[in-house]
Design brief:
single chain; alpha/beta; Spore Coat Polysaccharide Biosynthesis Protein SpsA, Chain A; seven-stranded mixed beta sheet; 8 helices; 7 strands; 16% strand; globular
């Protein structure tokens, strides 16, 4: 099975506010873009991925991610992450109604294509499935097979909400790169320890991160 990934990305100027203790205001937009670029590049290199659709109205992010090969879905409706995902899924399924879709976080800078492939292969066994984040509280990936609704419920405690919605929690070993999203300075240090993509590495080199 091959998947269309839908990746939501808020305007860069408002992204990653929880990194304020690690990155100054002027650096966070570039860091958020670097995260998204490394995430999209790794996703597009995954054999299980047919294509990647990024939901964003940020002009700079749209240009940079389109240059990597992503499809850009504009007209983000507002209302947060779940509304953006619903909009993105509707856009891709308007062209290919029976496509299997997966929502993926835009802040997975250590993402490994092979690990993503293993997660998606496991998800293909179920109508809907999800992968919890490294903190075991949130969600980094949610899938829906052909003809199935995604029903995203991202946000605080999304692991519990996705499980309650009937999505199967995926138990795949050694896929830390797919689970390590970055919201805080500690998250960024954990991602750097795993090994991030080149754009994040360059952006992070401008930061003073204790323990890096």
């Amino acid at each position: 099975m091959r998947w269309t990934l839908v990746i939501p990305l808020k305007p860069l100027a408002r992204a990653k506010s929880r990194l304020a203790d690690t990155a100054a205001d002027g650096l966070r937009p570039g860091l958020a873009l670097a995260f998204a670029q490394d995430t999209v590049a790794a996703a597009l290199a995954c054999a299980a991925v047919l294509d990647v659709a990024v939901v964003t109205d940020d002009a700079l992010a749209g240009r940079e991610l389109a240059a990597l090969g992503a499809r850009i879905v504009t007209g983000e409706p507002g209302g947060g992450l779940n509304a953006a995902l619903a909009h993105g899924v509707a856009a891709v399924r308007s062209l290919t109604p029976e496509i299997a879709v997966a929502a993926l976080n835009a802040d997975l800078p250590a993402l490994r294509s092979a690990e993503l492939g293993r997660v998606l292969d496991a998800a293909g066994e179920f109508p809907r499935a999800f992968l919890p984040d490294a903190a075991a509280i949130g969600t980094t990936l949610l899938t829906a097979g052909a003809g199935r609704e995604l029903l995203p419920s991202f946000g605080a405690d999304s692991r519990l909400r996705h499980r309650a919605s009937g999505a199967v929690e995926l138990l795949v070993d050694s896929v830390d790169s797919v689970r390590q999203d970055v919201d805080t300075g500690d998250d960024l240090r954990a991602a750097l320890a795993l090994g991030v993509g080149p754009r994040t590495a360059a952006a992070a080199a401008r930061l003073l991160i204790p323990g890096q």
